[in-house]
Each structure stands twice: as C-alpha cells, then as structure tokens.
Design goal:
Keywords: Membrane, Phosphate transport, Transmembrane, Transmembrane helix, Transport. With 393 residues, the protein is an all-alpha fold. Helix content is 69%, strand content 2%.
Length: 393
Amino acid sequence: MPEVLLIVGLLVAVFVGFNIGGSTTGPAFGPAVGANVITKVMAAGLMSIFFFVGAYTIGPQVVTTLGEELVTDTSIFTLRSNVAVLFFIGGALFVGNYAGVPASTSMTAVGAIAALGMATGELNWDVLGEIVVWWIVAPILGFWVAGVVGRYFYPRINAWIAIESKEGGRPMVSIDRSGLVPRLQFGADADRREITGALTVVAIGCLMGFSSGTSNIANAIAPIYGTGDVDMVPLILIGSAAVAVGCFTIARRTLDTLGNDITNLPLTAAIVVAVISSGIVIGLSSIGVPASFVVIATMSIVGLGWGRATRTTTLSDAARGEETRVSVGALTAEEEGERSPEIGEEDVEDIPKASDLFDPSTTARVILMQNVVPAISTVGAYFTFRFVPIFGF
C-alpha cells in the first residue's frame, strides 16, 4: 500500500509540475511573446531551462523550509495527506490554466498546506499572516509603480529605447539552425537599439524563470520530499521535466492572455513590466516570502495599461470631471529624438478609447480567477482534511 501511494503521489506531483509550467510561463515571457520578440516555442524552451537552474541551485532550500515553517508539527505530512495536498494544488491550477488565466502557484500551494494545518490545529498563524500581508501589498505596489511609469515616464523611456513590436512576420529573435552550431538570428530590419531591447526583455524573462524555479519547485515536490521516501535531486529532475511539458503545451493559453489580451504591449512596455515585476519578486524572495509573481506581473501590466490610457488628462482636468482621453502620440514616440507631447497636449482627433489599450473584461476575468483558484485549493483541502476520516486526523 505505501508503494502504491508513493507512485500516486509522484504522478500527482508531475501533474502539479505540468500546471506550474502552464501558469508561470505567461508572466515571465508573455510580454516578450506579445511584443513579437520571440516565439512561444522559444519562450517555453527558455522557461524550462532557467526554471531547472533555479530549482537545482536555490530550490532545495525552499523545498526544505516550506514544510517546516508553515506548520508547527511536521508529522501531519503523511504520504496520504501529501497526495491529497498535491491533488488540490494541481487540480486548482488546472482550472486556471484551462481558463487561460495564470493563477498564482505560491498562493495555491500555501493555501492547500495551510488548510491541512488549520484542519489539524497545527498551522503557524504568524508565518501565514506575514505571507498574506506581502501578497496584498506586492500587487498593489506593482500596479502603482507601473501606473506612474506609464503616465509620467513611458514616452521618455520609449524615446530612449525607440522600439516598437512588429505585427505579424518573423519574431525579432529566432534561432538559425542552418549550421552545425545553432545561433541567434535577429530581424533584418532590427537596429542595434532594438536588438539590445529585445535581448533585455528576454534576459529579464529568463531571470523570472529562474526565480520561479527557486520557489515553485517546492510547490510540486515538497510534500513528497517531506515523507523521506525520495531524495531531493530525483524529485527536482522529475518536477522540472513536468514543468517543461507544461511550458510547451498548456502555457500557450496563458502566453496569449498576458501577452496580447490584457493590453497592447509594445516592446518598451514589455521591458517596463518585466523590470517592475521581477524586481518586486526578487525583493520578496530575499526576505524569505514565497513570491506570487503571477499576480505581481499581471497587476503591473494592468497598471501600465491604466497609466498609459490616462496620460492625456491632467490631474486638474480629472478633478473637474472632464472626460479622460487616450493619447496615441504620447504612447509611441518611436523615432529617436522625437518630442513626446506633454500630458494633455495631444490632438484629440482619432484618439482611441481606453479599451483599445486596456481590456477591462479580460482584466476582470484574470483578477477573478487568480482569487478563485487559490480559494478552490484552500477550501477543498480544508473540508477534506477536516471531515474525511481516512486521513486519521
């Protein structure tokens, strides 16, 4: 019986890893794919590689601590209960991925483990409280920082970078396999500054993939590792392989959602979103908080879209209740040296609506599902551990 449970546990861990790949690839590489810098296949490959590097180097520390600090008595992590925890994590993430919304793996996993702790009376409320506070503060911080950048600094940054994504055609960065050694190939019409910007946004996506590996690998394998039946390295290899499968398959839906549907992201905007979200994630990770970079990146995209959409209206106009207009000129400033109009200066003719840059319906769906998915994991796990007698608590 224990052997059967272990096999089932490993299969469920693989299922969790598969859904982690689907939910985390979008926030990391959605901006780069949406700006037509790289293809979805290249994004999946880079995410797989850097996730594994993060999981193998720093991930073991997170795997060790996740099952020790959130609960006061680690004996509750039996093989049977761990299989159930992983089932609720993977099932809830699958719901989000099926809806095309990248849910927070950290929130979903912590919710299931916290539910086990609550059902058994072994939850460390101090640790949970600290985590939840940062989960609330971090997305708000990402939204407002991105909003301020979008409203006041985006034209200047765009003029400095002078990059705009190109609709259709070949991606800006591709791989030339014609020779014995594959090499990077850039678009024929891309200049040096565009190439630099493209490499920057891809590099930041790789950094976010690395960061995801350091924390999210624990969400897939920590419960199984806690039983002592399987060593750390084999579990990391299994979990990372499952994540890679998710990156190449189900992640396509979340790449579309974060790269195209929420807001129209030129490459400059993609860089801004990646810098803000990855900076907050790294800051949280440095103080030991499991970072929900899915939510932070999403809210940064929303904040940037909102900031860009309100650029044509001054604060005094808004206070008088005048209608908010959306500027085209203030947002593009593609050419090097082009003067960016001041706030409120733009020509009002042929100005698009705010929804042309920022899709409220898609955003509402994303925010709703990013709260529903962890709730499914937490509530389902709590009632199972509290009222189903087979777990023996």
